[in-house]
Structures are given as C-alpha cells and as structure tokens.
Amino acid sequence: MSETHPAIDLGAMQAAAVQACALLKLLANQDRLLLMCQLSQGERCVSDLETQLGIRQPTLSQQLGVLRENGLVTTRREGKSIFYSIASQEALAVMAVLYEQFCANTK
C-alpha cells in the first residue's frame, strides 16, 4: 500500500529556512552562545553575566545589543541594574537542545 504525503509548500519551507539560518548565524558566535546559554536558565543582570562568563563589559554590551536588536532577548530595568531574558521561543527551544547536548554534563 503506498503512502501519500501532503503537498510541500516550497515557499513556506524556504522562508522558514531563511529564519532558521538567521538564528543559527546569531548563535554561531561564542560570546552570544554563552550569553544565550546562561539566559536559557533564567533572567540575569549584566553584572552577573560578566562575572559568570568572564566576558569583559565592552564585548558583553556589544553582544547583548546584537541579541536585543534581533529580538532574541528582552530587558527589564530595576534601579540601576538591567536584567536580560530570552524573548524568542524559537531561540529558547534551540538553546534547550544545545544545553542538553553540551552543557548539562559540565556542572
């Protein structure tokens, strides 16, 4: 008995591939990947990220800016502190897989 497959919407697949490639390009930077890994575990303030990851302030600010501009993270201000959290559900899902594969055993 032959199995029929639903028709493929090539245009939708191509658009999804463009989105996936854009996300993967953003995560293909070591500092951004480290930041997203930390943020996948919950909200963090800038000073905590700097201490935990050893990323110097200028680089940290630059990479957080890239993530924010691309909609991957969002900010919340509390007094003088700025807190970051993941805003993209797609990025969070990718980070969950990466965390399980590469980070869960490093503790």
TrEMBL record:
Gene3D superfamilies: Winged helix-like DNA-binding domain superfamily/Winged helix DNA-binding domain. GO terms for molecular function: DNA binding; DNA-binding transcription factor activity. The keyword Transcription applies. SMART domains: HTH_ARSR (SM00418). Residues 12-106 form the HTH arsR-type domain. Keywords: DNA-binding, Transcription, Transcription regulation. It comes from the Bacteria. PROSITE patterns: HTH_ARSR_2 (PS50987). This is Helix-turn-helix transcriptional regulator. It comes from Cupriavidus campinensis.
